[in-house]
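Recap from last week: sequence in, structure out.
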Amino acid sequence: MAFSLSTIAQIALGVGDVDRAEDFFGGKLGLRKLFRFGDLSFYDCAGVRLLIEKSAAPDRSASVLYFRCADIVLARRELRARGVVFTDEPHLIAPMEDHDLWMTFFTDPDGHILALMMEAPKGYQPAG
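Predicted structure tokens:
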């Protein structure tokens, strides 16, 4: 049998203030907090663990985190109501063979880029 890796178990994100990050990721985004150990806070993202850790110099150029959602307009509206600031409107990223890929972007308190991502039916147009 050939060796290969398949499942990502955990992604780490360095932040300047773990308490502030907990308010954002747990409070505003509604991620389910698993536990906290000192300056490490862990959240469940549908089976992938997100580790929020204290960092003296958070790297804002870290990879973008894309959150899948069923309805990008409703998800964006709910997050805006919770105080999340978006940098753009939902927009078509790529028309795929069997669906259309839509995204909208926002930042966390440390300036990391995050996004909502929706795999929409072909021809989808968001309702205001």
